[in-house]
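for the writeup, i need someone to sanity check this before i put it in the appendix. the sequnce is what the collaborator sent (i think, or maybe the updated version? ugh). structure was predicted straight from it, no edits. if anything looks off just tell me and ill rerun, i have time this weekend
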Amino acid sequence: MPNFDTGNTGFMLLATSLVMLMTPGLAFFYGGLVSRKNVLSIMMQSFVSMGWTSVLWYICGYSLCFSGGEGAVVGNLDMAFLQGISVNSAYSPSNIPMWVFCAYQMMFAIITPALITGAFTNRVRFVPYLIFLTVWLLFVYFPFVHMVWGGGLLAKWGVLDFAGGIVVHATAGMAALASVFFVGKRKVAESGPHSIPLVALGTGLLWFGWYGFNAGSELAVDGVTAQAFINTDIAASFAGITWLILAWIFEKKPKFVGLLTGSVAGLATITPAAGFVTVHAAVVIGIVAGIVCYGAITLKAKLKWDDALDVWGVHGVGGIIGTILLGVFATRAVNPAVVTNGLFYGHASFFLTQTVAVIGTAVYAFVFSYGALWLINKITPVGTSQGEEEQGLDESLHGESAYL
């Protein structure tokens, strides 16, 4: 038996569990924001990803992300069905069991497409969603994991993404915007969140799980792990308070949902930079996240885009500006993986690399997602009918009700 690092292994098992908890947290967050008759349908879209994405991960996902393909767009199928991994296989340099690394990355794959669902709540049938979930993972998520974290094309170009600003939030956020444009507005207007306590519960679970999401992405226990942990909390806190102040000024009252949403925006925005920047930079990133993401949601409302749960404004915009701000504040003083310091330290090249990479990612994710929905609609109708919306998707699609 290999001599695994028990400290790293124990921590990564905990981090994996925390990231797994984020998907139920997301289900509660989204479930509280919709009406009583659509709670189960939106929650089910998160929970089904836990099952179906795990199936795809076993069949080919892990292999496409982390097997072969150095400098390429996607990996190969050499490790399909998780062949070649045994109880003795180790992931270096952390010296943890390969199974732990595989499980940790699988949790990221589960939550990423689930993020998209908040944009098209009440408007997409279940079977088309399952088809979209499948093709999106195969042609968006798996390739970008490989390109950034699997030694692929973007990694070769020097792009950094500590925990998923490009891989998770930019891709999901832009896919969400594409889905909004494709399915159009809801036919039946909703009165707003049916349960703000559920939103608060979901936010708490997301925030708690995000420590595993960000700090765990160091894949070991060291100073960078601690830096990523504190940066995560600081950015979320400053973003939440910034959002609260802005809502108080422009909406005349301090809104609880605003505080919760702002915190999630800060969490999304710090994600790509968590282990590459100082805590002082995390403060700036949190404040910028609160201002820019609040502005994005305000713009969305003026343009009358029906992004129901603000996935684009929170995750898409947050992931994009977080990746760009990483190009500003990255420093080798925090993490030696930073080859060239950011713009704040007098180096423009890394800033340009990050900006070009995230813009290219956003464009691809948007175009592919829109095209995929268009093709799926040719096979089976994607959108729900007015009658289904009026009845509520819980009953019309699933034959269940959240409340008696």
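The chain has a mean pLDDT of 95. Residues 293 and 317 are 6 Å apart (CA to CA).
thx in advance!!
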